[in-house]
């Protein structure tokens, strides 16, 4: 079928043609947006799960929903080598430029002046201009160099300005487990203050399965945040991720073809998109049959091995790859740290730095004490294929 009209789109954070199985999370976010606008601020949302389950897609949909309500919205990704201060400052600039106007209210002008001072706190040489005269405005003071003081001042003034505009402020952070401890603690503290005083602010975090523990360690009251474990798509809706996009292009899947792709994907959204894309390209259509699906899965697995899995494997050093190989016989269910050490003929203590480095790189996580597991579903099978080769 026509590859130009292919409705499937594998890729980090790319919105699928049919976003299915996430209705509860989307309803919860929509409700919190409405509540915040009437002065009833909810606790932050935390989306956590393995890679490939669609956390970034869902977080971006949160952003779109807030933007449609004309909220001030900033979405950032941690772990890029930049500090939270700079990431948030730069992400907020564009929406503030859009709001700036000569007729702006007092609180909006104040927030713009505070934003300028926040910019100065991490970039003395940089210049922002909002095209309005701020000489007589109050505000500023977000340049003390103390993250909690500066960021709290900025978010408070921005939320106050948003309230003046009849909207709110939304801050969304992807890969949140990669923030520094002090940065996470600061965000938790500010979220707590916002909820206590009903600032029209909503925060949402997305990250690996370790994120709830990391947040709780940053501040104990983070245990009260709204946690959603993002998993594979439910069996009741998973087929729709394939059939709805095809129907939009006047194509259809046979039941057998759907079953082939669903089983191969493990119901993980990223893999569904990859296999769906490859199957579409090999099918003559307009009906996709089981043989098309089997060929599409084979080609999709090749793409995943050379990209999705390979990129992560190549991030590991030789010693780290040896550790991952020792985990592979246990599949995706997790491995005992002690058993991994036994397989490698090493002591637990000697492998501690390797384990810590793999966790830091986001390749594995510790679901419970003494257990480690891959953050990427299917990684064990990929490793086994490399060993066999």
Protein model, in words:
The protein has 389 residues and is α/β, with parallel strands linked by helices. It folds into 3 domains: 207 residues, P-loop containing nucleotide triphosphate hydrolases (Rossmann fold); 74 residues, Orthogonal Bundle (Helicase, Ruva Protein, domain 3), CATH 1.10.8; 73 residues, Winged helix-like DNA-binding domain superfamily/Winged helix DNA-binding domain (Arc Repressor Mutant, subunit A), CATH 1.10.10.10. The strands form 3 sheets. It has a 5-stranded parallel beta sheet with strand order 2-3-4-1-5, sandwiched between helices. A 3-stranded antiparallel beta sheet has the order 8-10-9. It has a two-stranded parallel sheet with strand order 6-7. The longest helix is centred in the C-terminal third of the chain and has 24 residues. The chain starts with 22 loop residues before the first helix and ends with a helix. The mean pLDDT is 95.
Give a short synopsis of this structure.
By secondary structure, the chain is α/β, with parallel strands linked by helices. The protein has helices at 23-37, 55-68, 84-99, 106-120, 147-164, 181-197, 211-218, 240-248, 255-265, 269-282, 290-313, 318-327, 337-343, 348-360, 379-388, and strands at 45-48, 72-77, 169-174, 201-207, 226-229, 252-253, 287-288, 335-336, 364-368, 371-374.
């Amino acid at each position: 079928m026509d590859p130009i009209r292919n409705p499937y789109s594998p890729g980090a954070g790319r919105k699928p043609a049919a976003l299915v199985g996430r209705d509860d999370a989307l309803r919860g976010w929509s409700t919190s947006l409405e509540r915040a606008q009437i002065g009833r601020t909810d606790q932050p949302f935390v989306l956590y799960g393995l890679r490939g389950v669609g956390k970034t897609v869902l977080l971006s949909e949160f952003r779109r929903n807030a933007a449609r309500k004309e909220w001030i919205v900033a979405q950032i990704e941690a772990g890029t080598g930049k500090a939270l201060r700079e990431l948030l400052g730069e992400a907020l600039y564009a929406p503030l430029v859009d709001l700036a106007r000569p007729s702006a209210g007092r609180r909006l002008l104040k927030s713009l002046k505070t934003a300028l001072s926040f910019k100065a706190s991490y970039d003395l040489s940089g210049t922002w201009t909002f095209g309005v005269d701020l000489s007589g405005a109050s505000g500023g003071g977000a340049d003390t160099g103390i993250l909690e003081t500066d960021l709290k001042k900025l978010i408070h003034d921005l939320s106050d300005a948003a309230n003046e505009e009849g909207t709110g402020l939304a801050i969304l952070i992807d890969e949140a487990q990669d923030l520094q401890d002090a940065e996470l603690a600061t965000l938790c503290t500010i979220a707590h203050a916002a909820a206590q005083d009903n600032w029209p602010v909503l925060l949402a975090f997305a990250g690996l399965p370790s994120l709830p523990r990391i947040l709780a360690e940053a501040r104990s009251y983070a245990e009260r945040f709204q946690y959603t474990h993002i998993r594979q798509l439910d069996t009741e809706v998973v087929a729709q991720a394939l059939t709805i996009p095809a129907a939009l292009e006047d194509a259809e899947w046979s039941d057998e073809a759907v079953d082939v792709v669903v089983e191969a994907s493990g119901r993980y959204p990223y893999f569904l998109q990859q296999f769906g894309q490859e199957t579409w390209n090999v099918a003559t259509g307009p009906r996709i049959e089981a043989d098309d699906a089997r060929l599409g899965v084979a080609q999709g697995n090749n793409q995943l091995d050379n990209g999705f899995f390979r990129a992560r494997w190549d991030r590991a050093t030789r010693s780290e790859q040896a550790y991952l190989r020792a985990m592979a016989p246990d599949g995706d269910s997790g491995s005992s740290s002690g058993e991994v050490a036994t397989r490698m003929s090493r002591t637990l203590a000697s492998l501690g730095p390797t384990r810590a480095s793999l966790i830091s790189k986001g390749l594995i996580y510790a679901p419970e004490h003494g257990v480690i597991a891959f953050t990427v579903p299917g990684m064990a099978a990929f490793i086994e294929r490399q060993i066999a080769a």
